[in-house]
Design goal:
heterodimer; A: alpha/beta; Rossmann fold; 2 domains; six-stranded parallel β-sheet; six-stranded mixed β-sheet; 11 helices; 12 strands; elongated; B: mainly alpha; two-stranded antiparallel sheet; 75% helix
Chain lengths: 328, 335
C-alpha cells in the first residue's frame, strides 16, 4: 500500500507541474485573444542554423506583435514526424504556418490539408512541390554552390584532387548546392578531379565525422573538400583536425556556427558560404503577418548567399551573418 | 463465535479487496489514457480544440503505424521474445511498396509485396531464433541492421518517388468516400485489433503463445510445438510490420528508407505500457492499443501546446516507467 501512496503522490506532482506549466503559458496568452498565432516548423531544432531562423522569427514576431509557436519534428530530420507536427498545429487552429519542409513531396498533403482548413502556409528554406502555399522564402542554393565552386577553383589554381561530400538523400536545398558546385567545377575548372562525389554524410555531425575520417584514410593526398551544410562541415572539420590535415588543404563549407567561425579564424577553413537564416526566419514570419493583415506579398523571395573567408570575416555585414545575434 | 465472525469479516474484506483489485486491473490501462485526456482537455489554451472530431481523426491516423506494429509485437512479447527489427522492417516494406509501384505493378500487387516482405523478414527472424537457439534480442538486433541496409540498398540510398495511387488514400485524413468518416487505415487497424484480440484470447494458438511465454519448459512438456508456434508468432509480427510499412508509404507518398528510425522502441513501449511483460506470459491487445493512444495523445497535446520536444520526451519516458511500476505493484498484490 505504501508504494501505491508513493506512486499516487508522484502522479499528483506530475499533474501539478503540468498545470503549473500551463499556468505559465497562460499568463502571456491571457490577453492573447486578439494576437495572431503563427506556427514556425523547422526541420530540426538542434542545428545552429535553425536557432538563427528562430531568432529571426522571434524578431519579426515582436515587431509585428504576433505570437509564434516554434516546434520541429521530435527526431531530427524525420519526415513522418514533421507531418504529424503540421497536422497537430492544424488541429490547434493556428492562424498561419511557416514551414521548412523536410521533403519536397511528403509534406504536400499536410500543407494541402492546412489550405483546406483555410490556414495559409509560407514555405521557407527548402522547396515544396505544388502551389498550395502563399510564398516561398529561401536562399538561392544553386548560387551558393556556384560560389563555393569558384572559390575552390581559385584557391587550387584550377587543378587538384577534391572530395565533394553530400549531405542527405532527398534534401532539396543541399542537393541544389551540390549541383551548383559540381556544375561550376566541371565547367570552369576542368582540370579539377573529383575523387568522391556521391557519398552521403547523413544527418548528424557524428555520421559526417565518420565518413570524412574514412575518406581521408582512403585518399590521404586529397587537396580540397566541399561540404554542403553545417553538420557535414563541422564533422569534416573535426576529422581534418584529428588527422592533422586542417589548414593544409582547401576546405570550403556551408553555413555558420561558433565552432566554424573559430575554424575560419584558425585558417582551418578557407571559405564558408553563408546564407542569411535570421533574415529567412524574419521574412517568413513577416510575409505571413502581411498576408494575414490583408497586405500584398511576394510569391518568391531570395534571401541571398555570401562567401566569407578569413580576409573579410571582420566586415560588419559578414560578421553579423557569421555570428547572428541569437536569442538574448 | 467471536473468532468465527472475525474470520467472516476478514473474508468479506478480502472479497471487497479482490473486487476493487479486479476493477483496478481492468481499468488500469484505461486510467492512464483517461488521465492524459483529462489533463489536456482541462488546459484552457487547447481545451476547445483538443477533443474536436478533426483532432481525434488526426490522432487516430497518426496512431495507425505504431498500432499495427504493436499488434504483432504484443504476440512476440507475450511469447517471451522481442522484435527489435520492427521499425527497420516497416521502412523496408514501405520502400518495397514504392519500388513495386514504380516498377509498374498494380497497386494491389505492390501492397501485397510490401506486406509479404514484412512477413518474410519475420519468418527469417523466427527461423533463426528457433534453429540457432539464439535469444530473440540478438537475432532481431541483427535483423534491425540488415533490413534497414537492404531498404537503403533497394532505394539506392535515397527516397523513392512513386506516382500517386489509391494506396496513398489509405492514410488520407479526409477519405474519398466521405461516409468512411476516418482514414481507411484506421478502420483496418480497428479490424485487425479485434481479430487479433479474439485469436489471442480464444484460439488454441493464442493460448499456446501464453503458455510458451509463461514457462517454455512446461509448455514443451505439455506437448506444445514450441518452434512452430514461435516461427508463426514472428511471422505474424512481420506481416503486421509489412502492413504498417504500406501505411507509412501511404502517409509519406514516398518510399523512405530512413523513416521510422527508433520506432521499434515506441512500439515496445506501447505494449509495455499496456501491461505486456518483457519476461513473457502477460499482455493484451486492448492494453497495447491503449498504450499506443496514450503516447499518441501525449504527442498531439504537447505539440498543440507548443511545448518543446524535450518536455514531450521526458513526459513519455516518465509515463513508461510509471505505467510499468504500477503494473508490477498490481501483480505483486495479486499474488
Amino acid at each position: 500500500m505504501k508504494i501505491i501512496k508513493i506512486v499516487a503522490v508522484l502522479f499528483l506532482i506530475f499533474l501539478f507541474t503540468i498545470s503549473c506549466g500551463s499556468g505559465e503559458n497562460k499568463s502571456p496568452g491571457a490577453d492573447a485573444e486578439s494576437l495572431l498565432e503563427i506556427a514556425v516548423i523547422p526541420k530540426g531544432t538542434t542545428h545552429e542554423f535553425w536557432k538563427s531562423i528562430h531568432a529571426g522569427a522571434q524578431q519579426a514576431a515582436s515587431e509585428t506583435e504576433v505570437e509564434i509557436l516554434w516546434k520541429g519534428p521530435q527526431k531530427e530530420d524525420d519526415r513522418a514526424q514533421q507531418i504529424t507536427v503540421v497536422e497537430d498545429f492544424i488541429s490547434r487552429g493556428v492562424d498561419g504556418i511557416v514551414l521548412a519542409p523536410l521533403d519536397d513531396r511528403a509534406l504536400m498533403r499536410p500543407v494541402r490539408d492546412a489550405l483546406r482548413e483555410r490556414i495559409p502556409v509560407v514555405i521557407i528554406d527548402s522547396a515544396l512541390q505544388g502551389e498550395d502555399f502563399i510564398s516561398f522564402v529561401a536562399t538561392d542554393n544553386y548560387q551558393g554552390g556556384v560560389l563555393a565552386g569558384r572559390r575552390m577553383g581559385e584557391l587550387l589554381l584550377g587543378k587538384g584532387d577534391i572530395f565533394m561530400i553530400r549531405y542527405q538523400a532527398g534534401s532539396a536545398s543541399t542537393t541544389k548546392r551540390e549541383a551548383g558546385f559540381l556544375d561550376t567545377v566541371k565547367q570552369e575548372f576542368p582540370q579539377i578531379n573529383l575523387l568522391v562525389q556521391d557519398q552521403y554524410a547523413g544527418s548528424t555531425t557524428e555520421t559526417a565525422y565518420q565518413l570524412a575520417e574514412n575518406l581521408l584514410n582512403r585518399f590521404p593526398a586529397v587537396e580540397g573538400i566541399f561540404c554542403p551544410n553545417e553538420s557535414s562541415t563541422f564533422g569534416t572539420l573535426r576529422a581534418l583536425q584529428e588527422a592533422r590535415m586542417a589548414g593544409k588543404i582547401v576546405f570550403i563549407g556551408f553555413d555558420s556556427s561558433p565552432k566554424l567561425v573559430q575554424g575560419l579564424r584558425d585558417g582551418h577553413i578557407q571559405g564558408l558560404v553563408l546564407q542569411d537564416p535570421v533574415k529567412m526566419g524574419y521574412l517568413g514570419v513577416r510575409q505571413m503577418v502581411s498576408h494575414l493583415r490583408g497586405q500584398p506579398i511576394e510569391k518568391k523571395i531570395d534571401t541571398g548567399v555570401y562567401m566569407v573567408s578569413k580576409e573579410n570575416m571582420e566586415d560588419p555585414q559578414m560578421r553579423s551573418l557569421l555570428i547572428p545575434e541569437l536569442l538574448k | 463465535m467471536k473468532t468465527r465472525s472475525k474470520i467472516l469479516i476478514a473474508k468479506e474484506k478480502m472479497k471487497d479487496k479482490s473486487r476493487v483489485q479486479m476493477l483496478l486491473n481492468w481499468l488500469g490501462p484505461f486510467l492512464g489514457l483517461i488521465l492524459v485526456l483529462i489533463i489536456f482537455s482541462s488546459i484552457p489554451e487547447v481545451q476547445d480544440r483538443f477533443l474536436r472530431i478533426s483532432n481525434l481523426k488526426s490522432v487516430a491516423t497518426q496512431s495507425v503505424i505504431v498500432a499495427l506494429g504493436a499488434l504483432g509485437m504484443t504476440f512476440v512479447i507475450i511469447s517471451g521474445g522481442i522484435d527489435l527489427s520492427a521499425a527497420s522492417n516497416i521502412a523496408l516494406a514501405s520502400v518495397i511498396t514504392a519500388f513495386a509501384i514504380n516498377a509498374g505493378f498494380s497497386p494491389v500487387l505492390a501492397l501485397f509485396f510490401g506486406v509479404l516482405t514484412g512477413g518474410m523478414v519475420g519468418m527469417v527472424n523466427g527461423a533463426l531464433i528457433t534453429s540457432l537457439r539464439l535469444v530473440p534480442f540478438i537475432v532481431t538486433l541483427g535483423m534491425l541492421g540488415i533490413a534497414r541496409g537492404v531498404a537503403k540498398w533497394i532505394a539506392g540510398n535515397q527516397k523513392i518517388d512513386a506516382p500517386l495511387t489509391w494506396v496513398n488514400e489509405l492514410m488520407a485524413k479526409s477519405p474519398r468516400p466521405s461516409w468512411l468518416l476516418m482514414a481507411p487505415g484506421v478502420w483496418i487497424m480497428i479490424l485487425f485489433a479485434v481479430a487479433m484480440a479474439v485469436i489471442l484470447r480464444y484460439s488454441v494458438f493464442g493460448r499456446h503463445v501464453f503458455a510458451i511465454g509463461s514457462n517454455e519448459a512446461t509448455a514443451r512438456l505439455c506437448g506444445i510445438r514450441i518452434s512452430r508456434t514461435k516461427i508463426l508468432v514472428y511471422t505474424i509480427a512481420g506481416l503486421f510490420c509489412g502492413l504498417s510499412g504500406v501505411m507509412e508509404f501511404s502517409r509519406l507518398t514516398v518510399g523512405d528508407p530512413t523513416v521510422a528510425v527508433g520506432l521499434e522502441l515506441d512500439i515496445i513501449a506501447a505494449v509495455v505500457i499496456g501491461g505486456g511483460s518483457l519476461s513473457g506470459g502477460a499482455g493484451s491487445i486492448l492494453g497495447s492499443m491503449i498504450g499506443v493512444f496514450i503516447m499518441a495523445f501525449l504527442r498531439n497535446g504537447c505539440t498543440m501546446m507548443g511545448w518543446p520536444n524535450y518536455i514531450q520526451e521526458i513526459i513519455i519516458g516518465a509515463i513508461i516507467v510509471a505505467a510499468v511500476a504500477l503494473d508490477q505493484i498490481r501483480h505483486r498484490q495479486a499474488l
